[in-house]
Amino acid sequence: MAIEKISLDDSELRQKLDPLSYEVLRHGATERPFTGEYTDTETVGVYKCKACGNELFRSETKFHSGCGWPSFYAPTSTDSVPLIVDRSLAPRIRTEVRCAACDSHLGHVFEGEGFEVPTDQRWCINSVSMILEVSP
After folding, report:
1. In the beta sheet, which residues pair with residue 57?
2. 5 domain-assigned
3. Secondary structure of the chain in the HEC alphabet?
């Protein structure tokens, strides 16, 4: 199932979001490690894009990696979060994670780090880029 693309008005988004969320989502900034609201939470629910509400991750795939940001081993679907080559720290190449609906920056995904999770991936996502919809 393809995700419907959403065009966001930049000035409205700036008013809707706090300054750090705006910088992360729209300009690829990063929140400081161990400061995010969802870094250590174990609340059951669905994590959605703070800019547009697109479903990104479920709490069942969240794990404690110790990296300072919320970590997941898989998104809700492969369509919900496209991956982009990130050369901003060249020569190191990373894989950027974006929201498929509104193209907002969420974080990065890393592979082969040896975490005991089904995918051997760590989706390292900024807390300020998401909202947690708690399950009843």
Report:
1. 47
2. no
3. CCCCCCCCCHHHHHHHCCHHHHHHHHHCCCCCCCCCCCCCCCCCEEEEECCCCCEEEEHHHEECCCCCCCEECCCCCCCCCCEEEEEEECCEEEEEEECCCCCCEEEEEEECCCCCCCCCEEEEECHHHEEEEECC
Q: Could you list the active site residues? A: 124
Asked, as a colleague might, if the bond just before 75 is cis with ω within 30 of 0, I would say: no
Tokens at 66, concatenated: 């110790």
C-alpha triplet 109, 113, 119: angle, nearest 5°: 65
The per-residue pLDDT for range 30-76, each reduced to its tens digit, is: 999 999 999 999 999 999 999 999 999 999 999 999 999 999 999 99
Report if pTM > 0.90: yes
Is 130 contained in some domain?
Answer: yes
Number of domains forming the structure of the chain: 1
CATH classification at residue 39 = 2.170.150.20
In which domain, by residue range, is 82 found?
A: 10-134
> Does any domain span residue 4?
no
The two tokens of residue 97 are 């994670």
